[in-house]
Amino acid sequence: xxxxxxxxxxxxxxxxxxxxxxxxxxxxxxxxxxxxxxxxxxxxxxxxxxxxxxxxxxxxxxxxxxxxxxxxxxxxxxxxxxxxxxxxxxxxxxxxxxxxxxxxxxxxxxxxxxxxxxxxxxxxxxxxxxxxxxxxxxxxxxxxxxxxxxxxxxxxxxxxxxxxxxxxxxxxxxxxxxxxxxxxxxxxxxxxxxxxxxxxxxxxxxxxxxxxxxxxxxxxxxxxxxxxxxxxxxxxxxxxxxxxxxxxxxxxxxxxxxxxxxxxxxxxxxxxxxxxxxxxxxxxxxxxxxxxxxxxxxxxxxxxxxxxxxxxxxxxxxxxxxxxxxxxxxxxxxxxxxxxxxxxxxxxxxxxxxxxxxxxxxxxxxxxxxxxxxxxxxxxxxxxxxxxxxxxxxxxxxxxxxxxxxxxxxxxxxxxxxxxxxxxxxxxxxxxxxxxxxxxxxxxxxxxxxxxxxxxxxxxxx
Length: 462
Prior knowledge:
Layout lengths: L7 E4 L1 H4 L5 H14 L7 E4 L44 H9 L3 E7 L2 E2 H6 L10 H4 E2 L10 E4 L4 H17 L3 E5 L7 H18 L4 E4 L10 H7 L2 E3 L8 H14 L8 E3 L7 E2 L9 E2 L4 H13 L4 E3 L8 H7 L3 H7 L1 E13 L8 E12 L14 E7 L5 E3 L6 H4 L1 H6 L2 E5 L12 E3 L6 E6 L4 E8 L1
Parallel strand pairs: 1-2, 1-13, 2-3, 3-7, 7-8, 8-9, 9-10
Antiparallel strand pairs: 4-6, 5-6, 11-12, 14-15, 15-16, 16-21, 17-20, 18-21, 19-20
Helix pairs in contact: 6-7, 9-10, 10-12
């Protein structure tokens, strides 16, 4: 089953922007295979401008001398990707990735390269040329590489078909297609989906489609998105700032109830670990998120069943970050949960009714533990997951606010005794003080939530 669970992988954008090299991809692949594959991480995605020999940090190049074949299709820059020399594309790299038990993904922009239009290159398998099919009006506002395609012209579909045929021939498993959703280009999305389906039939392997970016994407599009993609972004780019994480609570609350097997709303990459080496934003750094903020990010993404695509350079990230990523709870919850959603969101004040004493928000999510779609049995039969988030700047001590029955249900809480276990128990350091107190309808979840932190637990009936 294609994308039966939310994909888990690495993307070069947060670390290397437009400039990642073959060796850096392989370094991350080897690290993933050795340290993270058993925890569910299995995909490497080369982000934008792998075909631009003049790619640089912090921006894009107008009129770049893109590497194209005779039909205007993008080819890897052989200086950064030596195995792609002489038109070999990503075949050799994909083979190495596959030998490690991993998958290879690429980023590509909507439309056709402007350079192909300037040269008026032929469209493979047709009598058309690039200037016949280009739409010079519907262009990306932030990247100068491509023109749009005129989807009323039959050559437009043929060009996407030819592009996807090339990518599939290399062995590509995953495609992140950008400038698709803001604004929402339904005809382009459908055309790309058709091209992927044709390539899958031709080469006999699946290609997951991820759509970007995600600003203002309406849940009204959900049926169309499920028909055409495995992943779709629900926000613009997210970086290592708490305010970026905070904005995702409301978005994930909208989308979590709509997650379905094989089709996933994506809360964007995880800006964890060593980022900014040669990226678009900021300098070379370990993520500015605190450990507690990083835990909140991961718990929210998992409880909302978002794909997990980490952006930090894995071999040079801190051990603490790798321990977070290696936590088996990440795959456990994304692969094996249902009825996911926000159940409590309340503003908390030091003095009731006095706005000047506002402290933060208490946000609670629940999810039911279920068997995985691949047949794996859940580790918590009959159990539930709960994530209690606190957005304030100081620690928050839970009183009798969050009752067990508010998570597991009134009848279930009264019929069984329940135990609580920490979903971050594999992490080094001080364990959570989360606990259950009381019985039946009086049973509550107690504990101290750190600033911008989370108590993430599994609840099991005995």
